[in-house]
Each structure stands twice: as C-alpha cells, then as structure tokens.
Specification:
The complex is a heterodimer of chains A (265) and B (319). Chain A has 265 residues and is mainly α. Chain A is 73% helix and 0% strand. The longest helix of chain A is centred in the middle third of the chain and has 31 residues, at 104-134. Chain A is globular. The two termini of chain A are 33 Å apart. Chain B has 319 residues and is α/β, with parallel strands linked by helices. Chain B is built from 11 helices and 14 strands. Chain B has helices at 47-54, 75-81, 97-107, 112-125, 141-152, 171-186, 199-205, 223-230, 245-253, 284-293, 308-318; strands spanning 7-18, 21-32, 36-40, 62-67, 70-71, 82-85, 159-163, 191-195, 208-213, 216-222, 235-239, 258-263, 270-275, 300-304. In chain B, helix 3 (97-107) packs across helix 4. Classes of the chains: A mainly alpha (265), B alpha/beta (319). The interface between A and B is medium-sized, with 31 and 36 residues.
Chain lengths: 265, 319
C-alpha cells in the first residue's frame, strides 16, 4: 500500500480550474461571450451612428450599455450556478465528486467562482463599448468603476441564489426554471410605471431589491453625474445581499450538498 | 488502514430509512482484507443504498460501520481510503480520459506531475492508453466503465466499491471488467465489494457472497457454502449418445440412488434424473458407474440445485 494521500488544501482552486475549463473550453462560455459581443456591437452601432435611432444622450447610452451588461452578466452567472449541483446530479457526475476527500465547501467555492467568470467576461467585453460610447464626456472611468462594483455585487448575489436553488432542486429543469423566475421577479420592479416607483413604498421597493437599487445607483452616477457618496445608500442592499447570500451558499453547500435534491438523503 | 487491520469492512446493524421505507435493514457483515465480496440481490434489494451508506454518500439511520479500520463517524478519512464506481456513473463528455483522471488524481492529493503519471499508468492498466486523448463522448459503454474503474483507483484505495460495473456491457466488455476486478484484488491487494445481479459474475470472481433481499441479509458466506446451504441438489441432467437413450434409461432405472430417469428437452440425448440421495453423496456415482459398466458413454453431467442461481432464487423467493 502507498502512503495515504490527503485532500489538497486549496482544492477549490482545482475544482474552480476544472469548472472554468468546462465552461470556456468544452462548454458554452465562448459561444455566449461571442453572442453577447455581437449584441453589444449592434446596440452600440445603432446608438452611435444612426441619427433616427440615436435618441439617447451620450451619458444615457453608456448607462443603457451598463444596464445591459449587468443584466446579461448576472443572468449568465445565475444560470451557470443554477446548473452547478442539480446539473451534476442529472449527468450522474455528482456522486464521483462526493466520494472524493475534498470538502464540500471547496466544491461550492470552486463552482461559484467559475460561474462568476461569465460576469467577468461579459464586463470585459463591455469595457470597449463603454469607452467608445462615453468618450469625450469624461464619464468612462466612473462608469466602468461603478458598473464593475455594482455588477460584481449583483453577480455574486445571483450566482449564490442560483447555487442555493440548484442545491435543493429535485431536477436541473426545476433549478433553471426557478432561478429564471426569481430573476424575472427581481427585475419586475424596473418595469413598474414611474408613478408606482415614487412615494415611500415605491422607494422602499426599489431600495430593498438589490437589482433595482444597484441599477438606480449606476444611473445616478452615470446619467446624473452625482458623486460616488451622494447616493451611496442605494448600494446598501447589494452590499448586504451579496456577502450574505454567498455565506449562506457556502454554509449550506458545505452541509447540504447531497446526491438527491429536496429534503431527502 | 493501520498495518494490523485485517477486516476491511465491518458493518453492524446498519439501517437506512427514508420515511416509512426501509431501504437497508440490520445490515451486518464483515469482509477481510484482500477478499472480493459479491453483493447479490434482486432489483430494489438495497444493494446500491448499502454501497452509498458504506461509501459515506448517505448517512446511516442506525447502526455503525468501519471501512479500512476507520469508523463511519470520520467520513472524510474513509473517502481517502476507498475507490468507488457508482451505479450508472456519468462522465463529462467534453473531457478526455486523461483530463478526467488527472482531475480526480488532483482531488485526491496528487500534484500535477504525479497526477499525470498516475493517469497514464491507470489508462494503460485498463486498456485505454491509445484513447487517452480522445473525448469521453466518443467512448463506448465498456470503455467508460473501465475509465470509471481507473478513476476509482487514482488514490490506490484499500477498499474498492463497484456497483453494477458490467451493467449493459456485451460479453467481451463484461469479461474485460471482471478481469480488472480480479487484478484489483490479486495485484493491488485491495478489497473489492462487487454489487451485481449477475450470478455468474459472482461465481467467477468472488471469494464470498452476500445475498440481500428487501434490505436484509438473506445469507452470507463463501460461494460454495451459500449454494450448498441454499439448496441440496436432488436432480441432475446428463447427456448420452441419442441412440443409447433407451438403454441409459433402463440402466438408470435399476441403479441405486437414482429415482426416475426420462428424456428431457435440450440437446438430443439429454436425460432428466431424479435422485434418491443428496447430490453431494458418494452414492451419486453408482448411477454413473452403472452406465459405464453398460457401455453407455456419459457426454455430460450436471447436478441441478447446486449453483448459486438456485441459492439466489431460494433465498430471495423465500423472503
């Protein structure tokens, strides 16, 4: 018999590395990135060149682009995380992971970080479009920094949410559908008539929802030209939701990652 | 495993319950190091659940067990010492066999260099060296099962759990997998727990057998012990040249220890023989000797009820 081997101390890096390769080399990451890039190109071209369609002021164009990348990046991170456990279950690959000596916390961290790579890629693609649309009005730096902070907080929040759904869902289809439904519910207040968004109830609704609050903050910086601190209270719910959901995902991932979803097992 | 441990797996009154459903009930058995234990049972007998409990995937509802000398209260330590091929294991289609094994070697504590060499050695051992850089999506079922067995060996485990490793394989694939199972025990010195519903597999490779029925152990022991305990043979089939069937029936009718002999379905010249004695009795030879004395050649002879399949049916139908 050979000497007993111990699980690697930083197994999350090995798991994360493998997941990244599965997403970007063998999976759909690259295809999604190219599709997103094409979408942004069309939007940017129309906004920047077509006089008939160019109804937006330059700052609003940048804001629109940031809202798109935050929504799409968060959506991709959410759906990738929603597949993380239930997908492995359905493909029959989870059991072989669970019988390794790697701690389930490391599996959770590795998978969450890999899911976040889609947000990082989406944001990286967007930087050149923001630069192009925002050149000349001195907004590019602030816009990119705000977008990065808010988008990262929302991506962490949504990826953790998707992971939690995946952890307990009975099937991958349920996990993906429920995650998408939750995302739509979170985006729903942005579609409310402006009247409904006013008053203390409307204000509260926008502030407690991390997505609406984050997008509102980005708009205040990019469109209204406010300082970073002027509307910082709008960042409260994204700042609270991201770490709390990440911690809950890590905690439950470490304790409740099981071969079957639901309450069994 | 500490050097003195000779019991590779020890289960004491292990029970796994899902609500009102008892999947495994009072499972008690031991396997000595180096043995191959065949776990038999009809569908739903609790084989897979028992393996999942013993491999720490599921927590037992009651009872205790130890694997490689490690109690079940230390699941992470058990996982370091075992290799598992789960039932209907899935594989990442977009990885190559080499990538898949290197990844699992890393998860078991190998560094990059040793992971690479372990992957290469194992792929050679299971006969997949020439396909090591092919995507798993192009592997046949037999190749995937051999890859799964290779994965179960990346940590040089002391105990290997194989859940239905030959399920869905053609005869050639089954033979390759069984040959691997034998090598795991003989050359690596590992203990193997092989779950299957194919009796022939157990008779071919296992030193001991455990028959599960409705979550409980119906019988446990060596293959021959279990077969003997389950059913004492009381009938036999023999074959003589077709033109000498009538002579054979006449000779057997007068032979001691033989009740009735008559023609039977099957190959021409096949006779079904009812015995008056236990098939393991030396008196059984009297009928054969009578045939030899009468100049009737016996082309084949087989006792019925002395096989594991008879034991299996007796144990599982009785339950």
């Amino acid at each position: 018999m050979v000497a007993e081997r111990h699980a690697p101390r930083q197994a999350w890096r090995i798991v994360g590395g493998r997941e990244l390769r599965d997403i970007w080399v063998g999976g759909r990451g690259l295809t999604l990135a190219i599709a997103f890039s094409l979408l942004l190109s069309v939007v940017a071209y129309l906004v920047a060149t077509n006089q008939a369609l160019n109804f937006l002021e330059q700052r609003e164009s940048v804001n629109l682009t940031l809202q798109v990348v935050i929504a799409v990046g968060a959506l991709l991170a959410l759906l990738t995380a929603a597949d993380a456990v239930s997908g492995e279950r359905e493909r029959g690959t989870l059991e072989t992971l669970l019988v390794t000596p790697v701690r389930r916390l490391h599996l959770t961290v590795g998978k969450l970080l890999a899911a976040l790579s889609l947000w990082v890629a989406a944001f990286a693609i967007t930087t050149q479009y923001v630069w192009f649309l925002g050149r000349g009005v001195g907004i590019v730096g602030d816009a990119l920094a705000t977008g990065l902070i808010v988008g990262s907080l929302l991506a962490v929040f949504l990826a953790s949410l998707g992971f939690l759904v995946s952890l307990f869902a009975d099937s991958n289809r349920i996990s993906l559908s429920l995650s998408l439904l939750l995302l739509l519910a979170l985006f729903a207040p942005t579609q409310l008539p402006s009247g409904a968004q006013k008053g203390w109830a409307g204000d509260l609704l926008l502030r407690i929802n991390p997505i609406t609050a984050g997008e509102h903050y980005v708009g205040k910086i990019v469109v209204d030209g406010h300082s970073w601190t002027e509307d910082v209270s709008w960042l409260a719910s994204p700042i609270i939701a991201a770490p709390i959901f990440a911690l809950i995902a890590a905690f439950l991932g470490a304790r409740a990652m099981r071969l079957s979803g639901g309450a069994s097992g | 495993m500490s050097p003195n441990v000779t019991t590779a797996v020890e289960a004491r009154s292990v029970c796994k319950q899902y609500g009102a459903l008892i999947a495994v009930d009072d499972l008690t058995f031991t396997i000595d190091a180096g043995q191959i234990l065949g776990v038999l049972g009809p569908n739903g007998a609790g084989k897979t659940t028992a393996i999942r409990v013993l491999t720490t995937i599921l927590a037992p509802t009651r009872g205790s067990f130890a694997v490689a000398g490690v109690p079940h209260t230390r699941p992470a330590d058990i996982r370091r010492r075992i290799g598992v091929l789960p039932e209907s294991a899935g594989y990442p289609e977009q990885q190559t066999g080499d990538e898949f094994l290197r990844y699992h070697a890393r998860l078991h504590g190998h560094d990059k260099a040793s992971g690479r060499s372990v992957a290469k050695a194992l792929l050679t051992e299971v006969g997949l060296d020439d396909r090591r850089h092919s995507l798993i999506e192009g592997y046949s079922r037999g190749m995937r099962q051999r890859l799964g067995i290779a994965r179960a060996l990346v940590n040089d485990p002391q105990v290997v759990f194989l859940d239905e490793p030959t399920l869905g394989l053609d005869p050639a694939g089954q033979r390759q997998v069984l040959s691997l199972v034998r090598r795991i025990a003989n050359e690596r010195g590992a203990t193997v727990l092989l779950s299957t519903h194919l009796l022939a597999e157990v008779e071919e490779v296992c030193s001991r057998v455990l028959i599960l029925n409705r979550g409980r152990v119906a019988v446990e022991g060596t293959v021959s012990d279990v077969a003997r305990r389950a059913a004492a043979p009381r009938s036999a089939k023999l074959r003589v040249p077709p033109e000498q069937v009538e002579t054979a029936i006449r000779v057997l009718a007068g032979a001691q220890g033989v009740g009735v002999a008559r023609g039977a379905n099957g190959l021409p010249g096949t006779l079904a023989v009812t015995l008056n004695v236990d098939g393991h009795s030396p008196e059984m030879n009297l009928g054969l000797r009578a045939l030899a004395d009468a100049g009737v050649p016996v082309l084949s002879f087989e006792l019925e009820g002395a096989r594991l399949s008879d034991a299996f049916l007796a144990m599982t139908e009785a339950g």
